Amino acid sequence: MLKLIKNGEVYSPKYLGIKDILLIGDKIGYIDDCINIPDNFVDIEIIDAARSLVVPGFIDGHVHITGGGGEGGFKTRTPEIQLSDITTGGVTTIVGVLGTDGTTRTMTNLLAKAYALDEEGITCYVLTGSYQVPVRTITGSIQDDIILIEKIIGVGEIALSDHRSSQPTMEDIAKIAAEARVGGILSGKAGVVNIHMGDGARNIRFIEQILDETEIPPRQFVLTHVLRNPELFKVSIDYAKRGGLVDFTTSTSNTSTDEDKLTPGKALKIMLEEGVNIENITFTSDGQGSLPIFDKERRYIGLGVGKVTSLYNAVREAIIKEKVAIEDAIKVITSNPANNYMLKDKGHIEVGKDADIVLLNKDDLNINSVISRGKVMYHNGEVKVKGTFEK
User: Fold this and answer.
1) 260 catalytic, yes or no?
2) Are β-strands 367-372 and 357-361 bridged in parallel, bridged antiparallel, or unpaired?
3) Distance (Å, whole) CA 152 – CA 120
4) Is residue 304 pLDDT above 90, yes or no?
5) pLDDT band at residue 290 using 50, 70 and 90 as cut-offs
6) With 60 as the cut, is the pLDDT of residue 167 above it?
7) Which of 19, 149, 237, 283 ranks highest by number of CB atoms within 10 Å?
8) Can you say whether residue 18 is alpha, beta or left, with left for phi > 0 and alpha for psi between -120 and 50 degrees?
9) 389 occurs within a structural domain
10) CA separation (Å) from 330 to 12, 91, 187, 314, 316?
11) Same domain flag for 60 and 44
């Protein structure tokens, strides 16, 4: 029941200095400069963090937990994610999404997998819908899904400017956002709309029209995959300056040999230099989603699979290679997604928050230990808790 993390250099993500953290069950119970254990006290597990940075458990806001893909036919449907695929990447909270396929991948399947991952030891939420418009929901209504189903916290991913989208109109997207917003207001949830951005020439034109012509605020939308091409990235900077939420995908196809490719770390540094508020930027992995490769004629020619472990790898690169401050880099996978999705118990090391904590080796910033809801899931390169069907 009790765990004491001793002498760690704590980022909450704000830098707190050397602290001890007492975990009581699945919550953070106490934080102080030095917590002493009384003589003859109950058994307590001591975790030595003297050579570690202690940060909040990572939040991955875009994971295809039931698998994704299928763009190359039925055999290219990627498999469901396993628990250790998530925890070895330091991730303790995820948001599950569907993708291109809203037919053989269903919302009931997505919701069941979310409950399964919760039972295995992490925290999982989901978004209702897929690429398609009209949105395929559980109850028949976006608003009802968000209000009545606890795990549903928004809508997505809805595809725009992509040859795989349903080619919705600006009015279609505005109505989706309006329904999600009211659902969120009435249920105390974020009600955000996750927009899958393709590489089409229209870019974010529809989103800009909605902001110009309606009362819907910029933070209603999370624009993901915005590093697809230079023009999309450029307009996403302006969108973020306007108050919108932008998201960088950390999984990439292994076929790329372009050394000048804009990585999430580089993109984060550029946005900060351009004056974008760090609070408006997140990283997500697109984990377990397919990474289809198309030729110039939009014909499928190959496939990769997204990895949740890419999430922290991109943050580590931003810190080491791009010299982004640790406090800022960690925010894009902790406090920022927690705030954007209104996950009040996540993303911060504070008394009363969930005991989701990651220990990083101070010398190389590699992941040493992962604690989810007070339970050690990964330690010193060894998976301590495996999923139900993992060998």
Assistant:
1) no
2) antiparallel
3) 19
4) no
5) confident
6) yes
7) 283
8) beta
9) no
10) 9, 12, 29, 11, 9
11) no
What is the residue range of 15's domain? 2-55+348-383
Whether residues 308 and 356 share a domain: the answer is no
C-alpha to C-alpha distance for 22 and 116, rounded to whole angstroms: 28
State phi, psi for 12 to the nearest 5 degrees.
Answer: -95, -5
DSSP 280-335: GEEEE--BT-EEEEE-TTS-EEEEEE--TTHHHHHHHHHHHTS---HHHHHHTTTH
In a domain, 388, yes or no: no
In a domain, 391, yes or no: no
For 345-384, write each residue's pLDDT tens digit. Answer: 999 999 999 999 999 999 999 999 999 999 999 999 999 9
Backbone angles phi, psi at 63, to 5 degrees: -135, 130
Q: Are residues 139 and 173 in the same domain?
A: yes
Of 299, 274, 281, 286, the C-alpha closest to 249 is: 286
Q: What is the pLDDT of residue 258?
A: 53
What single letter denotes the amino acid at residue 135?
Answer: V
Q: How do residues 224-248 score in pLDDT, each as one tens digit?
A: 999 999 999 999 999 999 999 999 9
254 pLDDT band, cuts 50/70/90, is very low
| Confidence (pLDDT) at 259 | 55
* 3-class DSSP state of 57: coil
| Model pLDDT, residue 41 | 77
15, 90: one domain: no
Residue 279: phi, psi to the nearest 5?
Answer: -65, -15
Average pLDDT of the chain, as a whole number: 94
- Active-site entry in 20, 60, 145, 286: 286
Q: Are 203 and 292 contained in the same domain?
A: yes
What's the one-letter identity of residue 262? L
Q: What is residue 192's three-state secondary structure?
A: strand
Residue 390 lies in a domain: no
Question: Could you give phi then psi for residue 129, rounded to 5 degrees?
Answer: 105, -175
Q: What percent of the chain has pLDDT over 90?
A: 86
Together in a domain, 119 and 198:
yes
User: Six-digit token pair at 78?
Assistant: 């990627």
